[in-house]
Amino acid sequence: MTQTTDRESATKARLSQSSVLTEAIALADREGLEAVTIRRLAQDLGVTPMALYWHFRNKSLLLEALGGEVIAEVDLTVNPADPWHARFRTLISALVDTLRRHPWAVSLFTARVCESPSYLVALETVLEILDDAGFSPAEAAAISRHAISSAMGMVSGEPGVTGPLAPEDAEESQRRAKLFYESLPSKRYPRVIAAAGPLTSCDDRDSYYAFGLDLLVAGVEAMAARRP
After folding, report:
1. pTM for the full model?
2. What is the radius of gyration, based on Cα positions, of the chain?
3. In-domain check, residue 1
4. pLDDT tens-place string over residues 129-143
5. Cα distances (Å, whole numbers) of residue 24 to 28, 35, 55, 62, 85
6. How far is the C-alpha of 98 from the C-alpha of 155, rounded, in Å?
7. Are residues 129 and 103 in the same domain?
8. Between the CA of residue 13 and those of 45, 46, 77, 151, what are the distances in Å?
9. How far is the C-alpha of 26 from the C-alpha of 29, rounded, in Å?
10. Residue that wins the pLDDT comparison between 125 and 111
11. Which of 6-15, 47-56, 105-114, 153-162 holds the top average pLDDT?
12. 159 pLDDT exceeds 50?
């Protein structure tokens, strides 16, 4: 009993907000966001739940901090010599890359997360690039909102993604979705049937994301070109 208590005390002494968030991200990556609870984290870290409440008073605060921690992973490095549209693409691509590593984080983009220091730094960087492109503050704000939503949509809407299912269950889910499209009335939905494969699976994930980024950046470039 004494040895167990000593180990727990030593672990508790090493606990910090950063170490708890690191463990929470690893847990969410393995098992999905629903697995992240105070009790489960305490179990994995070898401490009592009360030890975690010193750092996060409740699960909501933990999840808010988790969202900010994920945003902090986004690489905001851009080449200042690049044209604005290249820098814009680099930043949105970095956001997409981060969300691809942690797709569960899409659901954490709440108002409170958008007040986190890491989010504000990223937002300021995007707005600065759009200011360089000649957009007004209102236009830049709208573009940044849509760009962030598009990045999240690319990740959450990736064809064939079925959440935290076992591989065999995911394959079965994709097979059923494809079969559903292919079984539609051919005279009414010929194009849906022809696109059944691409609509339900993603053979080349990198190409899927590159296409989405091309589409987004091309739209913003077209808006900039129409400015007087």
Report:
1. 0.85
2. 22
3. no
4. 999 999 999 999 999
5. 6, 9, 13, 9, 35
6. 10
7. yes
8. 12, 12, 35, 39
9. 5
10. 125
11. 47-56
12. yes
Q: 134: phi > 0 → left, psi -120 to 50 → alpha, else beta; which? A: left
Show the domain range for 208.
58-159+202-226
- The letter for the amino acid at 74 is V
Residue 176 has pLDDT above 80, yes or no: yes
Residue 207 in this model has a pLDDT that exceeds 90: yes
- Closest Cα partner for 103 from 36, 152, 150, 173? 152
Q: pLDDT band at 164, cuts 50/70/90?
A: low
Domain count, the chain: 2
Sort residue 212 into left (φ over 0), alpha (ψ -120 to 50) or beta.
alpha
Domain membership flag for residue 188: no
Rounded Cα distance, 196 and 173, in Å? 13
Q: Tell me the mean pLDDT in the region 113-130.
A: 91
Q: Which residues 6+ apart lie within 8 Å of 134 measured at CB?
A: 224, 227
pLDDT greater than 60 at residue 13: no
What is the residue-wise DSSP string for 120-169?
HHHHHHHHHHHHHTT--HHHHHHHHHHHHHHHHHHHHT-TT--SS--HHH
